[in-house]
Amino acid sequence: MKLNKLPIADCRLPIAGSGAHGIFSIGNRKSEIENGFTLVEMILAIGVTAIVLVAVNAVLFTALHLREVTTSMVDAATPVDQTFTYLRRDLQCVVTPTNGTSKVLSGSFRLGNGISSAGVSDPVAAEIFTATGALSASLPWADIQRVTYELKNSTTVSGQRDLYRSVTRNLLSVNTPDVADQLMLSGVESVKFSGYDGAQWVEVWDTSDPSSIYTNLPLAVKVEIKLAGDSNAKLEPIQLVVPIDAVARTNMVLSSIQ
Questions:
Q1: Residue 20 placed within a domain
Q2: Edge-to-edge strands, sheet with 12-15
Q3: pLDDT digits (tens, 9 = 90+) for 155-197
Q4: How many CB atoms lie within 10 A of CB 146?
Q5: Predicted TM-score (pTM) of this structure
Q6: Is residue 166 part of a domain?
Q7: Domain-located, residue 127
């Protein structure tokens, strides 16, 4: 009697192991190993990822800090730039003064400390007549207006002084003129105007004073603003120098020669 050989079944048993999968074949006596990530490799990958995240976080924090510093500097410089823009425009469009007592649309040019100006309660540092008024249908005034710059006590912070720009549009008013105050800069310790006569800077310039030797506009005007709260006493005040082009040869009334 002849016995037939039965085929041996191909039994595959999984081999337990961390990070690997093994197969043991009984039929063909063959083992197959498929490699994966080991525990050491996982630890190294997590460590490298952590180092990259720390570096990215440091760069991001530095960028955010730089943005905050830049924003603070821009916010602090914006009021100063706006103030200088108004000062430069008013001084560049200043009107030449006239001689005598009748100064209707071309008034005096005065610089100094403690100047008294009509309609302004506080002493002013500068009083000028400038052609910077905006023409409109609701305001029947010319483009020439009187502008003063003075320090006033702050209405929000006790003991602080603010720089104001006061504007008078109706120059023909027989009563006390209406003055519009405009806040320019907060926290100002002092403001000083000086006129250049061609040889030196003069701190007092008044074309309305009969005894004054300065009867015309200066060649240039220098503005010095010192902010309050400066811890460093050696810190220089911020300065603005504006050349004056509208300078007449003379503002004296000349008698005609017969």
A1: no
A2: 12-15, 20-25, 30-35
A3: 888 888 999 999 998 887 777 778 999 999 988 989 999 999 9
A4: 24
A5: 0.66
A6: yes
A7: yes
